[in-house]
Specification:
Structural class: alpha/beta
Helix content: 25-40%
Strand content: 15-25%
Largest sheet: 8 strands, parallel, barrel
Number of domains: 1
Distance between the termini: 20 Å
Oligomer: single chain
Shape: globular
CATH class: Alpha Beta
Number of strands: 13
Number of helices: 12
Low-confidence stretches: 13-26, 72-80
Radius of gyration: 25 Å
Order of helices and strands: HEHHEHEHEHHEEEEEHEHEHEHEH
CATH architecture: Alpha-Beta Barrel
Length: 392
């Protein structure tokens, strides 16, 4: 059954209202989202792709609905013109015919004007609304939105407004003694000694001799930013960039969410699609999420951010809206299948509403991002079977 009104009630009213009125509710079933744009958008590969997705246990298919890029192509989907909305309509109709639901991400890489993005999102929703169950606004806006340079004045401003807090940490840096004619190098150090009788600290200079090739430890101090206790600290420049991106994205949500809702009032509207890169917590806390129904994250492993698959419950407590892990995958390695199965089981036991496998098929060109499960044309693999077991 593809009633979008029912889907929205199950995801929102069934989760929030039931907990509030009854005091407890059974955990909702995890939405299994799978993405493979090349396979879904290619009519010759579409049937096989959707069959593999269904066999994997998918309930939703995530697809980028892209505007032509502003600026040079990036690494996400390669160069060239984007498909027309009519081509998306054909693919979405096939997804629905296969018994799956459509999670569409409206993207316009390189554009930051809220009105232009809202116009594009509204146009896409108007054309595709009968076929789409969930709309997400932009992909990884904490990284992709064009923002102004973070000058020292801008950094000082976000510190004054308490958007972030600065902290000074003491670290050590090891330096290697370089070449010297006599095989040694003298290092000049300065420290404050006793008072010199005039109420001032006396500067004491001494020279330390090191042999060539030896390493010596030197104290350094670094000023960093953090949002809340337990967060990964980042540089003030990165924190400034994330706060600036959050302000730009808030303006986009306030414009684009009403445009989509006006054209498609029954669909779930999702904000976020937040990257796994350090600084994502700063971005998330600075965005106003009120215009959307849910927040989505990309909890890849090993990127140093706050949103990791190992911390899904911590992430869900950070937001008042339901949370969707709308992009996840593991690069090929001897442990890929093991890590995938454990990650999906963690997702099933957490409070996230859904998690997406990105992608289904392996990248055909070596190098770059490759978190697919199957070689193109294959029916199964160890990674595929690991996700299949975990989603059952």
């Amino acid at each position: 059954m593809h009633s979008k009104s029912v889907v929205r009630l199950v995801k929102l009213a069934g989760v929030t209202a039931a907990v509030m009125l009854a005091g407890a509710a059974p955990a909702a079933a995890l939405d299994v989202i799978v993405q493979d744009d090349p396979g879904v958008m290619d009519p010759q590969r579409r049937e096989q792709t959707l069959a593999r997705m269904t066999d994997l246990g998918a309930t939703h298919v995530r697809v980028f609905v892209q505007h032509k890029r502003t600026g040079p192509p990036d690494h996400f989907l390669g160069a060239g013109e984007q498909p027309s909305l009519a081509a998306y309509a054909d693919a979405f109709a096939a997804i629905r015919a296969a018994g799956l639901e459509v999670y569409a991400n409206v993207s316009w890489y390189g554009e930051g004007n809220p009105d232009r993005i809202a116009g594009w999102a509204g146009q896409a929703a108007q054309r595709l609304s009968p076929l789409v169950d969930s709309w997400a606004i932009l992909n990884e806006p904490d990284l992709s939105l064009p923002i102004a340079d973070c000058t020292p004045q801008r950094v000082a401003q976000i510190l004054r407004t308490k958007d972030v807090e600065q902290q000074r940490v003491h670290r050590y840096r090891y330096r290697r003694v370089g070449r010297h004619t006599k095989g040694v190098r003298y290092r000049r150090t300065v420290r404050l000694g006793t008072h010199n009788g005039k109420g001032q600290r006396k500067r004491i200079v001494r020279y330390v001799r090191h042999r060539k090739g030896r390493y010596f430890r030197r104290s350094t101090y670094r000023t960093i930013a953090r949002v809340r206790p337990g967060d990964v600290p980042v540089s003030l420049k990165r924190a400034c960039e994330r706060v600036s991106a959050a302000a730009a994205y808030t303006a986009i949500l306030r414009a684009a969410a009403p445009a989509i809702r006006s054209a498609d009032p029954d669909s779930l509207i999702v904000g976020g699609e937040i990257s796994p890169v350090a600084g994502n917590g700063t971005f998330a806390d600075a965005v106003d999420w009120q215009p959307v129904d849910a927040v989505s994250i990309h909890p890849y492993i090993g990127h140093g951010g706050e949103f990791d698959v190992e911390r899904l419950d911590d992430v869900t407590r950070r937001f008042s809206q339901p949370v969707i892990a709308s992009e996840f995958g593991v690069h090929p390695s001897p442990d890929q299948a093991k890590v995938l199965e454990r990650s999906w089981r963690l997702a099933r036991s957490s409070d996230v509403r859904g998690m997406a496998q990105y992608m289904l098929f392996r990248a055909e060109h070596p190098g770059g991002w490759d978190t697919g499960l199957l070689p193109v044309g294959a029916q199964t693999s160890a990674a595929y079977e690991a996700v299949r077991r975990a989603t059952r």
